[in-house]
Amino acid sequence: MIADLDYGLLPDESEDHFLGLEQAQLVGTDTLLTTRDNIEAVIEAKAMMCVYGPAGSGKTMSVNSALRHLAPDITHRLELRAGPTPRDIRHGLFQALGLPGEPPARPIEFDTLLKEALAEEFRVLVCDEAQWMKKTGFEFWRHLWDDKRTNIAVIFAGGDGCYKVLRREPMLASRIFIWQEFTRMSKDEVRATIPAFHPVWTDVDTALIDAIDKQAAHGSFRNWANITTHILSGMKKLNLRQVDEDLVRWVYSKIGGM
């Protein structure tokens, strides 16, 4: 059975934020700008890159944003789940590249088809949720990238698992052009970012933002999006016009420990 994969072109910007949070803004943080610079360098070098870090730290959002700016029409994205095998990756690439006909039954024929397609024009391939891959999956990507005929840049984005697998294997690690680690936002980054992230936080007291981050959000973009969604729901339900401590306690009753 083929592992579950999402594939295709870059998603719409409205899908970047967790839960499709309306009015959420992409904030030009240092990390976002660094990601854009790094991906630009990877594209120019036709190289491979590993973006890694904890869940909810903005990896996918930053990579997608950079590629919309740098290579929107030549990017093909795969999101892997459930321990994908090389066979799964082959089929995902077949779909992502929009290749005609039926996928070849034999791996050698399949690889030849993919290499021929990837030699036609330059493409950026993004492997999201790469922490699910084992050594054999990364080796397959290396096999494609190493081939002299293919014309690609490859970006792996995932948790610490993908970093550990790649670093354990010198043959793989030596081919990674750029390593970029994502971390959760610091207290100062939260103070600078969250009021610009969504209008609901624009006039909220800094002390309250600090408390929410310490108690529930923990520097995670995803947690802040979740909390913001509940805040907006609570304001509508309770007919409030601003965020206060009572509303925050109401949100905490919904989200439990984070």
TrEMBL record:
UniProt keyword Nucleotide-binding, yes or no: yes
GO molecular function list: ATP binding
All residue ranges annotated as the ORC1/DEAH AAA+ ATPase domain in the record: 45-166
One Pfam family cited in the UniProt record for this chain: AAA_22
UniProt entry keywords in alphabetical sequence: ATP-binding, Nucleotide-binding
InterPro entries: AAA_22 (IPR049945), ExeA_AAA_ATPase_DNA-bind (IPR052026), P-loop_NTPase (IPR027417)
Top-rank lineage group of the source organism: Bacteria
Protein name: ATP-binding protein
